[in-house]
Design brief:
Layout (H helix, E strand, L loop, with lengths): L3 H7 L7 E6 L14 H4 L3 H9 L1 E6 L9 H8 L11 H8 L9 E10 L5 E3 L7 H11 L7 E9 L2 E8 L29 H18 L7 E8 L7 H5 L3 E5 L2 H9 L3 E4 L4 H10 L6 E6 L1 H7 L3 H19 L5 E5 L16 E7 L12 H5 L4 E4 L3 H8 L9
Parallel strand pairs: 1-10, 1-11, 2-13, 8-9, 8-10
Antiparallel strand pairs: 2-12, 3-4, 3-6, 3-7, 5-6, 11-12
Helix pairs in contact: 5-9, 10-12, 11-12
Length: 401
């Protein structure tokens, strides 16, 4: 990828608009009965029409064969090398709920989970409890007292919460307590560097107290923590691309990530139609819009092939609202693949569609994994998307003499 400093040097302001629609977990694997992926199964008239007018391909969020988390996947979409800018999930969750992190704070993402009488995890998401129940439990956990540190436990959404420690000489070099599977006990937090030994002890003290408090609150009778991190230094999209960027999303983590790279945040709670209404209302105020659709990823993680198909179809049916605005550049892709057959993120490359009046259309007749394999973009790193979007929006001048 071209360094961000070089992009900054050749970026220019122009009136053209870029809309990046991210269908979280978009990529899939074929159903055993039909031989078609979720995207190939869905009826996507509008996406297929756009594919015929645009150019398609596949992207690797991090590197071929590497399964990305949502943070690295999105960073790459925004043009930031996920290997150079490592942002922990904890920071993203905290920022996403509007928590004002300070330098030195240690943040982690929390899950309420279910454990059986032997302490083994039976459900990593506690049956996706309601956000109201999550708020109630966070209030209880916030009352835990820890020596020499301040504790902040904030509800995020459903089973998710944000965990923040504030104090002197805290370190984020801790291992996750989430084993990412059922049938085993939650791990203890362990320091990965000796400097974090003190923080690991504090964290495990909190976990022990939380276990006692939650014992009678089944299915949310235990917690899992992952993504311990501190606030990083990262250049903004305004600084790098000379854009006025905005994000339209519902899930806090994605709003946190967008905030970290300098986007203005617009909250949407009721799906793609509301998101596109917000886009139309604020269309004149910004020249880059990131729109996030979470539900496809959730369906994939639940192993619900049909529900993921339905989400993709709902997005497709709403696209005329986007087309009516006539943005100069439209990008449709995902931050990673989440095949329902695997019930989780995977390493498979993600379909991408780029439309602009200045692109060179390929022979793709539809937007699908099989069509994108032979698309004109080929298989590229996700970090190449922003330079391509900027170029197609006529926002980059010539590099070099």
């Amino acid at each position: 990828m071209i360094p961000l400093e070089e992009i900054r040097q050749i970026s220019v302001v122009s009136p053209s608009k870029i809309v990046m629609l991210v269908i979280d977990g978009l990529g899939g694997l074929p159903d055993a009965k039909t031989g078609k992926t979720e995207l190939e199964t869905a009826h996507t008239h509008h996406l297929d029409h756009l594919a015929k007018k645009g150019i398609c391909g596949l992207i690797d969020p991090v590197s071929p064969g590497i399964t990305p988390g949502s943070g690295p996947g999105h960073l790459a979409l925004f043009g930031y090398d996920p290997l150079g800018f490592k942002i922990g999930r904890g920071v993203l969750e905290a920022l996403g709920v509007g928590f004002e992190l300070k330098k030195g704070d240690v943040a982690a993402r929390g899950n309420f989970c279910t454990v059986d009488d032997e302490g083994l995890i039976t459900d990593r998401r506690a049956g996706r409890i309601t956000t109201d129940k999550c708020t109630e439990l966070c209030t209880l956990l916030s009352q835990v007292k820890l020596k020499d540190v301040r504790l902040f436990v904030s509800p995020v959404k459903e089973h998710r919460f944000s965990f923040v420690l504030r104090g002197n000489e805290l370190s984020a070099e801790l291992s996750d307590t989430d084993p990412q599977k059922t049938g085993v006990a939650p791990y203890a937090a362990k320091h990965t560097k000796i400097i974090a030994k003190h923080t690991a002890g504090i964290t495990n003290e909190f976990i022990s107290k939380a276990k006692g408090i939650l014992a009678k609150h089944r299915p949310a009778n235990m917690i899992l923590l992952r993504g311990f991190s501190k606030l990083p230094d990262i250049p903004s999209m305004r600084e790098t691309y000379k854009l006025t960027p905005a994000a339209i999303a519902s899930y806090p983590m994605y709003k946190g990530l967008a905030k970290l790279v300098g986007m203005k945040i617009f909250n949407a709670d009721s799906g793609i139609n509301e998101e596109l209404n917000i886009l139309a209302h604020h269309y004149s105020e910004h020249d880059f819009f990131y729109i996030h659709v979470k539900e496809a990823d959730s369906a994939g993680e639940d192993g619900d092939f049909k529900r993921k198909v339905k989400v993709i179809e709902q997005v497709d049916s709403a696209l005329p609202q986007l087309f009516n605005l006539k943005p100069e550049v439209i990008i449709v892709t995902g931050d990673h693949s989440t095949p329902a057959t695997l019930k989780g993120h995977s390493w498979h490359p993600v379909p991408i569609l780029l439309y602009s009046r200045w692109c060179r259309p390929d022979n793709a007749e539809e937007f699908s994994e099989s069509a994108c394999v032979s698309g004109g973009l080929g298989r590229i790193p996700a970090t190449d998307i922003m330079p391509l979007a900027m170029a197609n929006a006529l926002k980059l001048i010539k590099f070099g003499a």
